Amino acid sequence: MPFRKYWFPIRVTYGRVLILKKHLDNKDIKNFVPLIRKVKLVDDKPVEKLVPAINNYIFVFCTISRVQQLKEEMEEQIPIRFLYNPLTKKPQIIRKKEMEDFILVAGSLDEQLVYLKPGDINLSKGDKVKIIAGPFKGVEGTFIRIKGDRRVVVTIEGLMAVATTFIHPSLIVPINKNN
Predict the structure, then answer these.
(1) Is 109 helix (H, G, I), strand (E, B) or coil?
(2) Would you give per-residue pLDDT tens digits along the chain (179 residues)?
(3) Separation CA 149–CA 161 (nearest Å)
(4) Domain segments of the chain: what residues?
(5) Residue 141 contacts residue 125 (beta carbons within 8 Å)
(6) What are the φ and ψ backbone dihedral angles of 67, each rounded to 5 degrees?
């Protein structure tokens, strides 16, 4: 469906994610870049700055034809690359619920979040759960122990994952695998 909007993970060349984000924001194109706070010394004074948590990636919500159009208009300034699904050979699409959960967790700017690459942890050991209360209410993910704490990991399949802060077991319910 050429007119249907999807979430696309887009890869851009190093250090240009925030430039592309600003361009997309100016065109009112919904996008998301997970950010973290970093402190740098400038003239011997600490300066806090928001920087991308994951280098070179931005998530864009629009039609595939609009992403193609952006790719053509930005090619000189910022080369934009789709991530392709290895099975279909088409641009990778992120499921809406998966992206909403990722944004809810990664968008919190909590300093206790942990970003993970595929293969960093074995998610098959954890239980599939839904958070029923608190700031991450409604998020679905895998309940596992990371850095000594029980956390819920939200994954964007094959690309990345983010682990919440400590989640008390009373705030989660298991997701029935048959549902």
Answers:
(1) coil
(2) 568 999 999 999 888 999 999 999 999 999 999 999 888 888 888 899 999 988 899 999 999 899 889 888 888 888 889 888 888 888 899 999 999 999 999 998 888 899 888 778 777 778 899 999 999 999 999 999 888 889 999 999 878 899 999 998 899 999 976 54
(3) 16
(4) 6-82, 96-174
(5) no
(6) -65, -40
CB burial of 137-162 (b: ≥16 within 10 Å; e: otherwise) equals: eebbbbbbebeeebbbbbbbeebbbb
In CATH, what is the architecture of 6-82? 2-Layer Sandwich (3.30)
Query: What whole-number distance in Å separates Cα of residue 62 and Cα of residue 97?
Result: 16
Instruction: Indicate the helix (H) or strand (E) that contains 49.
Output: strand 45-52
pTM for the model stands at 0.88
Tokens, residue 66: 């609009």
Question: What are the angstrom distances between the C-alpha of 113 and each of 36, 68, 82, 91, 106?
Answer: 9, 33, 26, 28, 8
Q: Please tell me the distance from the alpha carbon of residue 154 to that of residue 100, in angstroms, as a whole number.
A: 10
Among 118, 110, 13, smallest CA distance to 53 is for: 110
